Amino acid sequence: MKKLFNFIITTIIIMSILAGCSNNTEEFNTGRTINVITREDGSGTRGAFTEIVGILEEGSNGEINDNTYIEAIVQNSTDAVMTSVLNDEYSIGYISLGSLNDTIKAIKVEGVEATAENVQKGLYKIARPFNIVYKGELGTLAQDFVSFILSVEGQKIIADKGYVQVGTDLQHYEKVNNMEGTLIIAGSTSVTPVMEELAQAYKEIHPKVSIEIQSTGSSAGIQAAIEGTAHIGMVSRELKESELSELTKQIIAMDGIAVIVNKKNPIEDLTLEQIKSIYTGKITEWNGLIDN
Amino acid sequence: MKYKFMEDFMKGIFLVCAIVSIVAILLICIFIFAGSIPFIQEYGFKNFLLGTVWKPSNNPQAFGILPMILGSLCVTFGSMVIGVPIGLLTAIYLAEFSSKKLYKFLKSGINLMAGIPSIVYGFFALVVIVPFIRDIFGGTGMNIITASILLGIMILPTVISISEAAIRAVPKSYYEGSIALGATHERSVFSVVLPAAKSGILSSIILAIGRAIGETMAVILVAGNQARIPAGLTKGVRTLTTNIVIEMAYAADKHREALIATAAVLFLFILAINGIFLIVKRRTNN
Questions:
Q1: CB contact under 8 A, B141 and A88
Q2: What pLDDT score was predicted for residue B188?
Q3: Most exposed residue of A228, A272, B89, B95, measured as fewest CB within 10 angstroms of its CB?
Q4: pLDDT of residue B277
Q5: Biggest alpha carbon–alpha carbon distance for chain B
Q6: Most B-contacting residue of A40, A45, A86, A219 (CB-CB within 10 A), to test interface
């Protein structure tokens, strides 16, 4: 008798918990607050985004103030930002254009759609360079790999990944025979996916070469290049002067930063000014942005 | 003679093994403090520890970690409020009330819980607890409550296994004496056995605090990670550990040193907790 009673109680509790979980079929409510999602301090994506949108304010004496909304959720990877936006109808975030997929929605900025084409034409405003950096002279192998990246073949891979190629007058890659050895490349998590594809393609041409890619973050990549623990560093932001004095940089691609929202969100278009207001906490509710 | 040599030789090997862990902890101490003391001296101990603004991208940069210290304390306290009662009652149930069949089932479940990687807990919380909390309280769903519930769940295995062991270690005669005096089973357990196991239970709680304060990967996903003084239960929070992990990848120069100094503060916290644990344990043995 007692056992049966216990069993019934437990079942009721579990059922009521489950029932509580399953009632989210409401319409988009424009009165709700905007859940702002940003990246962590020091991230290349955040650095570029805050600078372009104007969240980073520079004073006359060289002081810089990052005015990012204090309530903004901080996530430390592109995937985490995407997952958060996917799970939260009322959120807004930003990610690298190349990582964009159709589980979430990229909104137009100043009426311009976030596409590689628009970035290359200079129409889409929020764009940044992908750099590689190295100290001193590159070795034969590294030099050859860099010229592969900057060739027609290499830039095609970059374009296929959704990024934007750098130049227009590209040359075809000329195969050098008997390349072998190991190349270590470290740095930005944003550059890593495309660098992996480039490395893959290069290894198909030169089977004896092994390329090791470490996804450690822009600053760690610079550190590795300076210390010599990596041959090439990947950096997804502009370099600081102290860094440029020690390293040589080469732009290998451009990347747009897409402003993303949940698919249930009806919003289509924002101006840079509106994005800035959202990210500095001046606009906190959706109803000012969405016309009914 | 040969045996003597063998004896000394093996003694040496055992000694080396014992020293390895000490050397490791010493190296950690040296690395963390050597990396952080110059920074703290330069930035100012008070500015660092009591500063309320953390803005490494600013110029001049601001590295105040008071928000993170308070954040860690809030989340840890919240996880105690949720995890300790559940864990303790579970331990009592396992030790004194459950049937053998159910015990086997529950015990292996709890052992399994202890073995689940923390990032898995984090994803579970991100897809289950966060939307649930968002539906109830509105906002982002990434806040102190969510992080506390998650940590409360994560500390359960620690609380349960150590408390259960403590309860089982109470001499059977206590319980039997109480029954002989006419007390019911429940009364004997709660009024006689439990007080006798008090210090063991306390140790389990202290170890759980250590686990909660040190937890990182799971908390990152659900805490919101805003670097400001905790502003309410339904607002986001950043802990000491998440501060380090979130920003370490891209940090350079001063920023990096500040993060190592954060690790030093965290290290001191853990030392304090372990100190308290030792004191509690010693009191028990006397």
A1: yes
A2: 93
A3: A228
A4: 87
A5: 78
A6: A40
